[in-house]
Amino acid sequence: xxxxxxxxxxxxxxxxxxxxxxxxxxxxxxxxxxxxxxxxxxxxxxxxxxxxxxxxxxxxxxxxxxxxxxxxxxxxxxxxxxxxxxxxxxxxxxxxxxxxxxxxxxxxxxxxxxxxxxxxxxxxxxxxxxxxxxxxxxxxxxxxxxxxxxxxxxxxxxxxxxxxxxxxxxxxxxxxxxxxxxxxxxxxxxxxxxxxx
Length: 197
Fold this sequence. Notes:
mainly alpha
């Protein structure tokens, strides 16, 4: 694969992922957890999904679209319910009862949470499908894996540190409300699109 093709794959995946739900999820997670733990967990989730996409090649595109849309819509609505219905005060009180400091989770738990959210959120995602397409069309799985992984890891680090910086200017409760409303809107949009198309 030429350097130009490698950079083109990187750029396309990077641009596809920037406005994506997993970027929003990373920003929201990092407003409550250590940015580096979120970035590392999210990066690991992306790496596994890229490996799946490259390994599967074009097979992901054969899955029924409505199945992917239902799963993604339910994930959005579940995230919205958590952010909108579980108050920050309840979380803080639960942490105080357990004798936990301001950041109640361990590094491992924060990384595992970020890994799980990104790993599940990326199933059937546009960037994953595009990665599978690149692997199927270019027939250079290692190069596709490297280019796509670097693009997604870059997005994970940008999202993680953006969430931490955002909390310095906007109260966490408003970040949670905004994230919850965004997830709710994306969930509703997913189901409306599913049933009207």
